[in-house]
Amino acid sequence: MCRPRTRPRHGLRLGDNYTVNLLAVGDTYTLPDVSHPHGVGADPSASDYYAPFSGYYPNMPIFTDALGDKVLVDNIATYFADGTAQASGARVDAIAFVADETGQASGFRFRFTADKQSQVAWNFDAGYSMFDARLKISTIAAQFTGIGP
């Protein structure tokens, strides 16, 4: 689920005012109420929680198929949970783009970062869960070489 932390400016949905929860099998979700207007996701076992970015996986990649099959679950969640922090802060980047035959490309960048509220959970049966990951969505443009007939 994805929810804005604050109201988007000028009606745009691009921005960095979003938080994301990725729930694994067995996690729970409490429906929204007055005190939690976006609901609450949780892992059933408190012992499974830890702070993101333990440094288990070095060399943070930029995933180039952000909207591909299981990318959010298998790649982004894994590196958000156990990847090394970047020089500018803990983050995982993924991009999705379309390129034409001249190599002109446009698309989106999705940047997931941890803050003080961010947590992850992992257990053998369910895999990874992400709670309160910050998400920034921005547009990208690129020129690729070697594309064409």
Secondary-structure map with pairings?
Layout: E1 2-4, E2 15-22, E3 28-30, E4 40-42, E5 49-50, E6 62-63, H1 71-82, E7 91-99, E8 104-113, E9 119-123, E10 127-143
Parallel strand pairs: 6-7
Antiparallel strand pairs: 1-2, 2-10, 3-4, 5-9, 7-8, 8-10, 9-10
Characterization of this structure:
The chain starts with a strand and ends in a 6-residue tail after the last strand. It contains one helix and ten strands; from the N terminus they run E-E-E-E-E-E-H-E-E-E-E. It has one domain (2-143). A hairpin with a 4-residue loop joins strand 7 (91-99) and strand 8 (104-113). The protein has one helix at residues 71-82, and strands at residues 2-4, 15-22, 28-30, 40-42, 49-50, 62-63, 91-99, 104-113, 119-123, 127-143.
What labels describe this entry?
149 residues, mainly beta, two-stranded antiparallel ribbon, 1 helix, 10 strands, globular, disordered N terminus
